[in-house]
Amino acid sequence: MIRKKKLLKLLLIAFLTFTLSIYYIMYVITNPQTVRIKIYSEIIEEKIQEKFNNLPDKYKRKSSKVDLITQNFIKYVQNEHKSTANNVNELWKEANTWINKTQLYSITHKLGYVIDALKNSDILQVGLNPKGTQLKFLLTLEGNQKVVFKPKRYDREEIINGVVYAGKDRYGSEILSFYLSGLLNRPLVPLSAERKLSIKKEVIPLATENFLKTLFIHNNNTCVYGECYYCNIKDPVCAEDGYIYGAVIFYINYKFKLYPNPWKRTYKKNLLASWETNEHFCKVVTETLNKNRILDLIDVSILDFLIQNGDRHHYELLNDTLIWLDNGKGLGNPFVDHIDILAPLYQCCMIRNKTLIRLQELSGGVLTESIKKMPDVDSFVSYKHLEAIERRLLLVYATIELCNSDKRLVIIK
User: Fold this and answer.
1) Separation between Cα atoms, residue 224 and residue 215, nearest integer Å
2) Alpha-carbon gap, residue 405 to 54, rounded angstroms
3) pLDDT at position 79, please?
4) d(CA 54, CA 157)
5) Which residues pair with 148 in a beta bridge?
6) β-pairing verdict for 192-198 and 243-250
7) What are phi and psi of 158, to 5 degrees?
8) In angstroms, what is the C-alpha Rg of the chain?
9) Backbone φ and ψ of 50, nearest 5°
10) Which residues are catalytic?
């Protein structure tokens, strides 16, 4: 009996050894990239971290120069004037004239006026925006200006664990991206502001028939599940104390050209994209995209890295300018920095001179100090996220230093 038990144990050990050997042959020896992938990503992150730990002082101190860009943006964003029925039409008209081939808004004294109009103008109609994967409303404001409304899904302190694109959109990430675009002097994010909608006064009486079909009562709260790719009755947005909170985003009435991002993810658990396995991927990209487009993708990757938006699978063009739309997947986990969002930067190792100068002007805490002065920011950006943004800015500097130390950095005027 004892001999039989020993024999069974030996057979089990032999079986396991055989199984592991087959796995090793099939997935490692026959696919050496599975080993190389880990080494490549780890080496890059370790090198950037080393540069981060030894950054020159110029990246840690405030610039001695007067920063008029930051001063003006803060002043104009804070310059909120209550809109009235007499002037709201003019505000919308002016805001639409700001949109041209290089920007989505102008940094002028009227900026705060328009933001106030987004937050407080009367609502004429509440509809659904079926485009995309997640629940959005389409509001028509007084003066017939349309805005997209992204509802609140998470509390400010809630941490989203998992892959970089995990969870639903965070409305605050859209507003923060607007603020960052102004501070970076790249007005390529649509105007956005925080707003709350009264279910009884502003939603139900003004809702379209399609909207009302998705309304229901749950635990004495009015909820809506909407119409979109992932929308269903099991995953609604419900009113908090009679209100739905979220972000209103200025509707850009333009048909954008949509292109796949070369650095997009596969969104499959065990399948990596080419850029994740090929350290020379930028050479592949240069075969299909011109230098200006690649520089645009590098610029937006810096924004995405600061907020940790790892979900930019496509990009849109306004004429020939890449604009920064759909920034809702930021503000997920302040304790994790997904370095690979910066892949366009560390693989291509080039950057616009104006981008580099602007990043350096925001050093020494200027960036996060400026964010703190933005309207309503305490509602959707926690102190932990501010710390993370400051740390990530240093990691951007470290990535630039890595390119520079390898003598690969190209600065484009």
Assistant:
1) 4
2) 12
3) 84
4) 31
5) 138, 249
6) antiparallel
7) -70, 135
8) 25
9) -65, -45
10) 311
Residue for token pair 């909120």: 80
pLDDT of residue 132: 87
The 3-class secondary structure across the chain, one letter per residue, is CHHHHHHHHHHHHHHHHHHHHHHHHHHHHCCCHHHHHHHHHHHHHHHHHHHHHCCCHHHCCCCCCCCHHHHHHHHHHHCCCCCCCCCHHHHHHHHHHCCECCECCCCCCCHHHHHHHHHHCCEEEEEECCCCCCCCEEEEECCCEEEEEEECCCCCCCCCCCCCCCCCCCHHHHHHHHHHHHHCCCCCCCCEEEEEEEHHHHHHHHECHHHHHCEEEECCEEEECCCCCCCCCCCCEECECCEEEEEEEECCCCCCEEEECCCCCCCECCECCHHHHCCCHHHHHHCCCCHHHHHHHHHHHHHHHHHCCCCCCEEEEECCEEECCCCCCCCCCCCCCCHHHHHHHHHHCEEEHHHHHHHHHCCCCHHHHHHHCCCCHHHCCCHHHHHHHHHHHHHHHHHHHHHHHCCCCEEEC
| Residues 244, 151 contacting (CB under 8 angstroms) | yes
Residue 187, both tokens? 């007005």
Residue with structure tokens 């951007």? 396
Whose tokens are 């996220």? That residue is 385
- Burial label for 373, CB within 10 Å (0-12, 13-18, 19+), is middle
Task: Count other Cβ atoms within 10 Å, centred on residue 401.
Answer: 20
- Tens place of pLDDT for every residue, the chain, 413 residues? 556 666 666 666 666 666 555 554 454 444 444 445 556 778 899 999 999 999 999 899 998 788 999 999 999 999 877 666 568 999 999 999 999 989 999 999 999 999 999 999 999 999 999 988 999 999 999 999 999 999 999 999 999 999 999 999 999 999 999 999 999 999 999 999 999 999 999 999 999 999 999 999 999 999 999 999 999 999 999 998 999 999 999 999 888 889 999 999 999 988 999 999 899 999 999 999 999 999 999 999 999 999 999 999 999 999 889 999 999 999 999 999 999 999 999 999 999 999 999 999 999 999 999 999 999 999 999 999 999 999 999 999 999 999 999 888 999 99
